[in-house]
Give the backbone structure.
Amino acid sequence: MPKEKSLEFKVGSFVLLALIGLAVFIFSITDSPIFEGGKTFKAVFNFANGLKKSAPVRIAGVDQGIVQEINLFFDPNVRKTKAEIVLWVKKDVRIPKDSTIMINQLGLMGEKYIEITPGNDIDEFLQDGQVIVGIDPIAQEAIAQKVMEVASGLDKMISDGKTKNSISATLENLSLVTGNLRDITSSVKDGKGTLGRILYDERLYDDLQGLTADLKANPWKLLYRPKK
């Protein structure tokens, strides 16, 4: 019996040590904060928008921590239930007190995460355990509703007879203007019209050059008025 108990104890100890070693290995390759010093502070939101525990915390776009806890609490001051997000960040990270914190998302359907945009007040930094009020995200349902409203408004506007006629008239006018510009450009290239002659008639160009040189040499001619 003593030998059997000794064997069971050894097997149990071996299994326990193996599990501990596996846990250490997993946490080490997943950058878990359990084995790394850091600090925590809380962010309060009216709406968490589906944020999950262990979501990344990014500061200036760089991963610097994780979401440790997500709790609900009742705020008696405004008589409203809010979300309290406990954030863990690396100990050497300094976050100015006037920083903004929000719940962001990777793409339209991507992972939610905490984004902290550092403020400009470098005299005061958030300390371990402090609370900061976050900027509430817009619910996806609200965004979808706005998109639907805009799409519906555009559809009604385009379907309206007056709007259609106005758009058609505008397009016709644009076509006429484009045609006129094309004709003017062609005439200028062919040396037609005043602008075309100025640009392409060498004699007129030489005359203008001579007149300019004469006025530079005799600026009094600009003020001279012949007596009647």
